[in-house]
């Protein structure tokens, strides 16, 4: 007769906690569906964008001089204040729309639609870099090094673009490959350091941003990258043979880089969702310990992930020099895209197609922001504010739900009580 | 102090963890709370300690109703707790841990460490502990850490002391010492609630016993009750305490481990010159108290440890120095002791977890591409075969109960062509039904002619499964004895005593 | 990195009754070659730089500033000879470190410090051959650049010690700089500007705390996004509002330098440390206060317990959420105060994105300094020194392209994080939200 029972106390309530998480089975399907639709992530995204635009509108209104003036005599003629607010905010957002989607003031569709092509043009590097950051996120790595990777990629692609003489087509391909490789190597260094020494990738990527900046700045002062006919730290223009061809003719800025970006999105989707490599990536990202025990070489995954991530960000740098600014680049060629990419990846929830559409949305903000600045005199910085607010709101669904009084999906379920989080 | 819990009810969503529980602990009484894993013991004690708020019911101390909004209130009312997972800050010293939350300060708000040290020494002296107030907690063995927990509670003048599964991490000898301490505390007038699932300890120390099952009090018992009575009360049916298994038919030695040593990153030799072999068709159980090198030994077998010396051979081929991938490919199946941390990816679906260690090559990958149809078919089949209770194969494993999670791990490992099967703590934290299932599968694996290593800190499991038993202590194998070795001898060996029989049969 | 410093469970002798069953395992010797290898690399660099492409001429170190009461003589160093001597010393330390490693002993910290100091002196002599190096000016500038870094790093240390990763230091600095400029400009009271800077930094922290503690959003993500938000907000307001009326809104009075009597006349150190604005004196106080507070007071003990093991803190009645919230806010106030130095102490007006990555450097200093206020301060000073060295050398004519000098602190950080620091152990629960069931 045994003295003890074959049960034990460690993790005693684990089974209990786990049962707790199971959704009730007896819930009517249709209502659950509706609640998920209204309270779910798609709706949250829409409401988050709305909310951010509202906050942006408030900022525009209170800094508008007409509004301030009208507010001075608010109590005698309140309608003036509201009209001024309406004028300021609607003027801004109409300009934003006209600068990013369709301009009704222009005659004809061909001119009217031009802003949309501008949006896609701005979206091109955002999507590429966003994919890179998102890929790293899925492996549990935080790539803040977009700036450095873009700069190195731009320098590599640019150098090939203006110094080599190759036939049409081949020159472009070689330049693109050089750019992607440059970004991949700059990212891969981070992966190697992380795998070999355990150095935290956030620190290393931040540091490499500065190293890349000064390295490229240095070469822009030396014959390696500097335009011989200029005293400015700027490169010569890219040869025609290496420039991304225009997609819609010379009247539009949209270039073939966008096609590359679509291809990159499909590639990342396949890689993450359908390939063996991507399975290992995701396993490491979700639980590196279990991945290691299951025979996955975690260190190698870190290196490969940073190579891929850097390469994708490199594509963004490449698109900048071979597509957007082909007349020669300086050390500001990254245009903050490396950091914007983080918000793009977050908004896209690190899913390839999510990143794609998030990139287009932020591209629209950029395109529209410039026309808003030109037409209404509203500083482009407002776009940064709106973008960051969108990400903040999306990251905190309960906040958005409470503001809009949305139902919580699976509300009958108790909040996930993670034993791990509680004991850690 | 008299403690009374009246009609305590605690719900988590649809699940009722505590269902109108009544419990009275008289002053100076040791009251055992007996129940299976998941019965709701810990939930009840967390309610008592103010960590959870009860949905219904009252807590009374000396017949006065209490309202605890946090552990601070409970402590102020004289309730102390020795937690199952020690609530100590590893990088703090003993004195700092003891003073935390009720610190004395001297001039200028500076911590009065001298006062804290004095308090540690005073309480240690009272109970004959030997605890250095300036030692870092992370450097202390678990037995001493537990004493720090006790000192922590006593330093707050606890009148009611709750011990939550205190013996889980102790050797049989340490357990005996703890029982002595509990009696001392009782003599000093402290009321004690002793939460456990181990019948022997309950009968040895308890004045009264309350048994709970599935969140309800199912009965009270006197310490004179028999094991069988208590067990059936606790589990709700007559319990099969042994595994049905035929005598082993061991073949030739399949795994040979010779002079294996493992050094951990801090430079400690955690496995010291260990040699043994496992024959095809036998179960070798590795027994020992948690933290005596078993974890590192199994990890070394799998290629997870970095600093390994010695020789490991499987079917004559060396495994030493191979990557985990190669070891798995050589036919080693592995159930890690912490399944949520090392065995499963919680956010992955059941089917994804089933292919976790076959993420390269056939059958689930062709030309670098996942074969989702093959995987789905395989997963459906395994879910049925292993009786995994889930909504579907796309359910994330994090949503499953511990038992079902372990079945997913077993299904994955046992569906490969195994030359060796290593299961570490295969039933930790599982309910009785799942334990029986896991044990049956392990014995079946043995009967199919696979050499099996089972690592367990539970003597019952060791005795139930083992054909031979290797006992580990401080990184060394104290001896290898037959599966029918008496428990008291195993207990002595777990405390490091070499047994004459050990050498004979090893 | 050192592997032999661990000793068996200290001071827990097994008592006679044998109650404490101490598991005392044997120790293996593990040799670490990181320090000697790093030394060797730098020695080779030294040989190449100071000897192979060594420069001739005399390098003159000027220790005093013109306004000092006690004027120290200038020190001349013959560049090549000094280089040879220093390389020999470097080689000696390297060799000694190799013998230590062979005996499985760690190279002591002071040896690393001496090595670093020698290398820096060697480099300075080499770089300034043929000209005069204003040592006091170099150090004064170093401190100036380091002030916002140090405040940022102290904020980071507090925040991470309580369990919230603070990537938003950049945003807190920038918010402090902006608000202090506007408030001081409108009120013409710089002290009010300092106060406002603290409030601004705290507001940024409120958002960080609210999202990471209340809504359990990943702390790094909130931090990154907050930086973008503050950059956008200050940039927008700068362009839209401040530019319209810079005299009213963006002309804060500069803080006066205060010379501490007697102390400010100490040679070399006096001008560097004691002829500073109130912000710097507050900084000295803050460094000491944070250090003593963290390690010797109730506040610090509770703060660290929450960052290490929140559940354990909870079970002894410490309010984890509240502790985190208010200390993250305090961290924001400290960082915001440092931001005010940029406008009120240094530049004299707010500029778009004027922090230029200082917050990230401060973050690196936190990790480089292993979450210790003193070490983080030293790390911040190191960054400040490297940056200012470039400034000084570009004035006296440097043989090294300025970009490479500018790169140096970042490369040093990478080397340090990857090599010398290695897998450092931060607060155990930093970055993890505490979910009470």
| Beta-strand residue fraction of chain C | under 5%
User: What's the CATH H-level superfamily name of the largest domain in chain B?
Assistant: P-loop containing nucleotide triphosphate hydrolases
Largest sheet of chain C: 3 strands, mixed
Major sheet of chain B: 6 strands, mixed
User: How many domains would you count in the coordinates of chain C?
Assistant: 2
Describe the secondary structure blueprint for this structure.
The complex is a heterotrimer of chains A (424), B (506) and C (437).
Chain A: H1 14-21, H2 29-39, H3 41-62, H4 65-72, H5 78-100, H6 108-112, H7 114-138, H8 146-163, H9 170-197, H10 201-221, H11 257-274, H12 276-286, H13 288-293, H14 298-324, H15 337-347, H16 352-376, H17 381-395, H18 397-404, H19 419-423
Chain B: E1 3-12, E2 15-25, E3 30-34, H1 41-48, E4 56-61, E5 64-66, H2 71-76, E6 79-82, H3 94-99, H4 113-127, H5 142-154, E7 160-164, H6 172-187, E8 191-196, H7 199-205, E9 208-213, E10 216-221, H8 227-235, E11 253-263, E12 269-279, E13 283-287, H9 294-302, E14 307-314, E15 317-318, H10 324-329, E16 332-335, H11 339-343, H12 350-354, E17 365-366, E18 369-370, H13 372-385, H14 402-414, E19 420-424, H15 432-447, E20 452-456, H16 459-465, E21 468-473, E22 476-482, H17 487-494, H18 500-505
Parallel strand pairs in B: 3-8, 3-9, 6-7, 7-8, 13-20, 13-21, 16-19, 19-20
Antiparallel strand pairs in B: 1-2, 1-4, 4-5, 9-10, 11-12, 11-14, 14-15, 17-18, 21-22
Helix pairs in contact in B: 14-15
Chain C: H1 34-52, E1 58-62, E2 75-78, H2 79-102, H3 109-127, E3 132-134, H4 135-161, H5 169-187, H6 190-214, H7 219-240, H8 246-249, E4 258-259, H9 269-274, E5 275-276, H10 278-296, H11 298-308, H12 310-315, H13 320-347, H14 358-368, H15 373-396, H16 402-420
Parallel strand pairs in C: 1-3
Antiparallel strand pairs in C: 1-2, 4-5
């Amino acid at each position: 007769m045994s003295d003890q029972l074959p049960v034990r106390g460690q993790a005693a309530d684990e089974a209990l906690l786990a049962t707790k998480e199971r959704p009730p089975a007896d819930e009517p399907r249709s209502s659950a569906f509706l609640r998920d639709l209204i309270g779910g992530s798609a709706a949250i995204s829409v409401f988050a964008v709305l909310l951010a635009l509202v906050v942006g509108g408030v900022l525009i209104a209170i800094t508008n001089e007409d509004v301030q003036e009208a507010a001075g005599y608010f109590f005698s003629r309140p309608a003036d204040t509201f009209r001024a607010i309406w004028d300021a905010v609607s003027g801004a957002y109409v300009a934003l729309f006209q600068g990013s989607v369709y301009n009704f003031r222009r005659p004809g569709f061909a001119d009217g639609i031009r802003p949309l092509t501008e949006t896609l043009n701005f979206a091109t590097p955002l999507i590429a870099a966003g994919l890179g950051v998102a890929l790293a996120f899925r492996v549990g790595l935080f790539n803040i090094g977009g700036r450095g990777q873009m700069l190195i990629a731009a320098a590599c692609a640019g150098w090939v673009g203006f110094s080599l003489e190759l036939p049409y087509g081949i020159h472009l391909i070689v330049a693109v490959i050089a750019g992607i490789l440059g970004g991949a190597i700059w990212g891969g260094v981070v992966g190697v350091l992380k795998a070999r020494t355990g150095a935290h990738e956030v620190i290393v990527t931040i540091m490499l941003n500065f190293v890349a900046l000064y390295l490229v700045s240095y070469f822009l002062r030396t014959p390696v990258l500097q335009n011989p006919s200029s005293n400015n730290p700027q490169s010569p223009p890219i040869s025609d043979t290496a420039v991304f061809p225009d997609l819609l003719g010379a009247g539009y800025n949209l270039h073939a880089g966008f096609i590359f970006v679509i291809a990159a999105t499909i590639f990342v989707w396949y890689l993450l969702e359908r390939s063996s490599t991507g399975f290992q990536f995701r396993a490491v990202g979700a639980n590196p310990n279990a991945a290691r025990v299951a025979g996955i070489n975690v260190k190698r995954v870190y290196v490969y992930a940073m190579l891929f991530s850097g390469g994708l960000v490199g594509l963004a740098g490449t698109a900048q020099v071979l597509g957007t600014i082909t007349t020669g680049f300086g050390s500001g060629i990254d245009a903050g895209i490396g950091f914007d990419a983080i918000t793009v990846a977050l908004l896209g929830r690190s899913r390839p197609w999510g990143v794609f559409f998030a990139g287009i949305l932020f591209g629209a903000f950029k395109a529209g922001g410039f026309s808003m600045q030109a037409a209404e005199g509203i500083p482009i910085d407002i776009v940064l504010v709106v973008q960051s607010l969108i990400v903040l709101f999306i990251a905190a669904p309960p906040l958005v739900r409470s503001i809009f009084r949305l139902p919580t999906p699976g509300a009958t379920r108790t909040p996930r009580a993670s034993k791990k989080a509680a004991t850690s | 102090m008299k403690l009374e819990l009246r009609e305590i009810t605690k719900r988590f969503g649809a699940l009722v963890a505590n269902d109108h529980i009544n419990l009275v602990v008289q002053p100076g009484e040791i009251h055992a709370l007996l129940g299976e894993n998941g019965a709701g013991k810990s939930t009840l004690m967390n309610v008592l300690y103010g960590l959870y708020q009860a949905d219904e019911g009252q807590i009374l101390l000396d017949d006065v109703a209490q309202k605890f909004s946090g552990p601070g209130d409970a402590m102020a009312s004289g309730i102390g707790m020795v937690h199952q997972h020690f609530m100590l800050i590893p990088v703090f010293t003993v004195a700092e841990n003891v003073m935390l939350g009720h610190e004395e300060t001297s001039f200028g708000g500076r911590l009065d460490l001298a006062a804290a040290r004095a308090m540690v020494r005073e309480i240690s002296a009272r109970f004959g502990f030997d605890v250095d107030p300036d030692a870092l907690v992370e450097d202390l063995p678990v037995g001493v850490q537990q004493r720090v927990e006790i000192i922590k509670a006593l330093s707050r003048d606890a009148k009611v002391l709750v011990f939550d599964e205190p013996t889980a991490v102790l050797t049989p000898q340490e357990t005996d010492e703890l029982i002595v301490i509990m009696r001392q505390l009782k003599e000093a007038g402290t009321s004690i609630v002793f939460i456990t699932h181990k019948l022997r300890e309950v009968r040895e120390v308890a004045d009264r016993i309350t048994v709970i099952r599935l969140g309800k009090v199912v009965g009270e018992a006197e310490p004179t009750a028999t094991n069988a009575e208590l067990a059936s009360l606790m589990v709700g049916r007559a319990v099969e305490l042994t595994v049905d298994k035929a005598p082993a038919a061991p073949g030739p030695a399949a795994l040979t481990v010779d002079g294996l040593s493992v050094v951990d990153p801090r430079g400690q030799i955690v496995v010291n010159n260990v040699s043994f072999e496992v024959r095809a068709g036998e179960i070798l159980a590795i027994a020992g108290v948690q933290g005596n090198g078993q974890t590192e030994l199994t990890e070394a077998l799998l290629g997870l440890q970095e600093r390994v010396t010695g020789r490991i051979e499987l079917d004559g081929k060396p495994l030493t120095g191979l990557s985990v991938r190669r070891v798995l490919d050589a036919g080693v199946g592995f159930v890690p002791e912490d399944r949520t941390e090392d065995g499963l990816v919680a956010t992955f679906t059941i089917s994804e977890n089933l292919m976790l260690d076959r993420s390269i090559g056939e059958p689930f990958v062709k030309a670098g591409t996942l074969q989702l149809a093959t995987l789905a078919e395989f997963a459906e089949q395994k879910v049925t075969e292993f009786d995994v209770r889930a909504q579907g194969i796309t359910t994330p494993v994090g949503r499953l109960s511990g038992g079902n999670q372990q079945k997913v791990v077993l299904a994955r490992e046992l569906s490969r062509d195994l030359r060796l099967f290593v299961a570490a703590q295969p039933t930790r934290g599982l309910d009785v039904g799942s334990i029986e299932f896991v044990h049956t599968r392990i014995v079946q694996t043995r009967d199919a002619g696979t050499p099996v290593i089972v690592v367990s800190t539970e003597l019952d499991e060791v005795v139930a499964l083992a054909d031979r038993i290797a006992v580990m202590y401080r990184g060394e194998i104290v001896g290898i004895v037959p599966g029918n070795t008496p428990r008291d001898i195993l207990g002595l060996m777990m405390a490091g005593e070499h047994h004459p029989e050990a050498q004979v049969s090893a | 990195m050192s592997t032999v410093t661990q000793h068996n469970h200290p001071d827990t002798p097994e008592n006679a009754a044998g109650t404490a069953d101490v598991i005392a395992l044997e120790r293996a010797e593990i040799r670490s070659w990181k320090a000697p290898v790093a030394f060797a690399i730098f020695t080779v660099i030294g040989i190449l730089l100071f000897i192979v492409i060594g420069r001739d001429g005399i390098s003159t170190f000027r220790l005093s500033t013109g306004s000092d009461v006690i004027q120290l003589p200038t020190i001349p160093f013959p560049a090549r000879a000094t280089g040879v001597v220093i390389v020999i010393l470097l080689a000696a330390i390297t060799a000694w470190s190799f013998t230590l490693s062979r005996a499985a002993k760690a190279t002591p910290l002071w040896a690393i410090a001496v090595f670093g100091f020698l290398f820096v002196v060697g480099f300075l002599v080499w770089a300034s051959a043929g000209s005069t190096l204003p040592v006091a000016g170099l150090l004064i500038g170093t401190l100036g650049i380091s002030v916002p870094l140090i405040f940022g790093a102290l904020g980071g240390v507090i925040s991470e010690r309580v369990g919230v990763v603070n990537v938003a230091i950049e945003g807190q600095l920038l918010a402090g700089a902006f608000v202090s400029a506007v408030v001081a400009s409108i009120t013409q009271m710089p002290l009010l500007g300092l106060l406002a800077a603290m409030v601004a930094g705290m507001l940024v922290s409120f958002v960080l705390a609210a999202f990471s503690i209340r809504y359990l959003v990943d702390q790094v993500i909130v931090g990154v996004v907050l930086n973008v938000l503050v950059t956008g907000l200050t940039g927008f307001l700068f362009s839209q509002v401040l530019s319209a009326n810079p005299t009213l809104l963006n002309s804060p009075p500069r803080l006066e330098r205060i010379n501490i009597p007697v102390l400010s006349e100490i040679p070399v150190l006096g001008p560097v440390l004691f002829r500073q604005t109130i912000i710097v004196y507050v900084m000295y106080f803050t460094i000491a206060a944070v250090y003593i507070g963290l390690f010797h007071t109730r506040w610090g003990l509770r703060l660290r317990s929450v960052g290490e093991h929140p559940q354990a803190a909870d079970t002894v009645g410490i309010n984890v959420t509240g502790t985190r919230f208010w200390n993250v806010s305090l961290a924001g106030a400290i960082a915001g105060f440092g931001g005010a130095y940029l406008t009120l102490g240094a530049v004299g007006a707010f500029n778009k994105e004027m922090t230029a990555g200082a917050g990230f450097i401060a973050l690196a200093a936190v990790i480089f300094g292993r979450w210790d206020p003193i070490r983080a301060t030293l790390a911040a000073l190191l960054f400040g020194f490297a940056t200012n060295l470039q400034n000084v050398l570009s004035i006296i004519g440097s043989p090294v392209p300025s970009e490479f000098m500018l790169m140096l602190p970042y490369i040093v950080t990478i080397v340090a994080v990857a090599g010398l620091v290695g897998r450092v152990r931060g607060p155990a629960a930093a970055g993890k939200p505490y979910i009470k069931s």
